[in-house]
Amino acid sequence: MKIARRLMPVVVLLFAASVFAQKGALKIDHTVSLTEPSSRQFHITTEIGNIDQPQLSLSLPTWAPGWYTVENYFKNVLHFRVTDAAGKDLQPRMSRKQTWNIDTKGVKSIKIDYDYRATVLALNQAKIADDYAFFTGIEMFLEPNGHRNDPATVHFKIPAGWNIISALKETSDPMTFIAADYDTLVDAPTEMGKFDVTKFEVEGKPHYFVANPAGTFSKEKSDKFVDYLARVAKADSAMFGGLPYDKYIEFYFFTPAESNASGALEHLNSFVAFAPTGDVATPDMIIGTAAHEYFHLWNVKRIRPAEMWPYDYSRENETPLLWVSEGFTNYYGTVATYRAGVTSEERFLQGIASAAAGVESNDARHYISPANASVSTWAGYDTPVAFGISYYTQGQNLGALFDLSIRNDTDGKYSLDDVMRTLYNDHYKKGRGFTTEEMIAIVNKLTKKDYHDFYNKYVWGTDVPDYDTIFGYAGYRLEKAARQTADPGFFGRVRSGGLIIAGLDPASQAAKDGLKNGDAIEEINDKPVNRGDLNALAGKDVKLSISRGGVKQTIDTKFGSREVLSYSLVSVPTPTAKQMTIRQGWLKR
Ligand SMILES: [Zn+2]
């Protein structure tokens, strides 16, 4: 069914909008009501018709694709009740922590009612504030098991005077949207209330930049930012041969997130991002993350590891390929901003060198391969583990090394772009994910070489690449330097209350001097913490002004220091003709 669905989205959507008479398909109608924002609760009514089976199981997801953390959304559900067409209570029996079984023998339609508490503004949570509300379907919509490909309708009831924008497909009724199937339904964020919208077009398709709080990111900045977004979209579109969506939405919150799920999160035809406050954020500051999230609409939303095809929303979906899904997306974020003319050649090359330095500065790179880092992410996706390395940086570094190796092996005829296009055309468009072996086969076919050794060393293994050989394919070598950076002994996140301490090293001086996990550092040396230059404090005595459980106190301690590598790519003195061919292909825009 996936093949037909993926190949004929237009047909399926028309079908969804009109009849719902697809054989065996349920008729599914969700209504999301928000009558009183101060209650911080949505009321959801799900009406399911066309039932022709003795039992129906209904599940709520436990995690949101792209944010590899189990959240158990059921914990936010109140007053869960199931009735039949006559209003008689049916007895839902839980079989798993997020699944209810309903006896539907002789029952053609049921209605499920529940409230959903929405109190956390975060990428993978729902929030109702006084003047806006935000959620993504994954947190709130039930899946009738065995009916993932059935379409659904979503109706909204929102406070008077509020606006609404949703990544779901619009209908003639501004309060009604549709989704072709459950995966599409739950991958769509919706925002209602007060916010700014800048509409722009790319290749004839509508795009919407949504900024919240309204009025904080100026019109001048918004206009410049959407120009950047459009240029990046065109660069990526040129690589893949068109934009595979009807509309695209960039949801921005220029305010701190209220959980660890800050940063940005990709969806099928949208992304959600947190950015510094509107007076601080600039288009140049936020376009890098935007280019990363946008590239995800191909890489991970469509080009997807086989272990996540289809998604299992009931539990962790481990895959050894997130170094491709995230790391190559990092790489192509820098490629796209460069190709779009948003960033310079110098900055592009510096980004490549920085990724290499980021990997080589981390001792964990000698123990944890990119493949293993990918699988183990579920142990600490948004919370630091004691000893780890990011497959984002590992994969970004590998992206450049793969790209240059393929270009060198094919005398500039093919590149990593061809691998991505093949994954898109031969896997996604044929309704399937990809495995490591299938990816190797694609690279081998393009290069007429065997890349198993490359994977053994750098993907499954922890060998240090011979950078000067591989960067040398384009006539570059790595110039290496080292500098001291502060090692405060903790990991923190900037929140409205200050820098919240998360991963405190018990052996650090700060811990010995009394700092604890959960403390909020409000000032360092009497300066606001998010403005201070931590690196300048390497090895220095510092005064931390903290708040612990609302009680303010100061801790005098000392930050440690550690050496980090600083790399730059420099041209060899006299590049050969082949080196110049590879370089020009790599830097073409
Ligand atoms: Zn990402």
CATH architecture of the largest domain: Sandwich
The shape, in one word, is globular
Number of strands: 29
Please indicate the count of domains: 3
Bound molecules: zinc ion
Question: What's the Cα radius of gyration?
Answer: 25 Å
Distance between the termini: 39 Å
Tally of individual helices: 15
Low-confidence segments, given as residue ranges, are: 1-21
Instruction: Say what the CATH topology of the largest domain is.
Output: Immunoglobulin-like
Helix content: 25-40%
Task: Describe this protein with a few key phrases.
589 residues; alpha+beta; Immunoglobulin-like; Neutral Protease, domain 2; Pdz3 Domain; 3 domains; eight-stranded mixed beta sheet; 15 helices; 28% helix; 28% strand; globular; disordered N terminus; binds zinc ion
What this model shows, in words?
It is built from 15 helices and 29 strands. By secondary structure, it is an alpha+beta fold. It has 3 domains: 2-295, Immunoglobulin-like (Sandwich); 306-478, Neutral Protease, domain 2 (Orthogonal Bundle); 489-558, PDZ domain (Pdz3 Domain). The chain is globular and about 80 Å long. Helix 6 (322-339) packs antiparallel against helix 7 (345-360), helix 9 (391-409) packs across helix 15 and helix 10 (416-426) crosses helix 11 (436-447). The strands form 6 sheets. Strands 5-4-8-2-1-12-15-14 form an 8-stranded mixed β-sheet. Strands 23, 24, 25, 26, 27 and 28 form a 6-stranded antiparallel β-sheet that branches. Bound molecules: zinc ion. Zinc ion (ZN) binds next to helix 6.
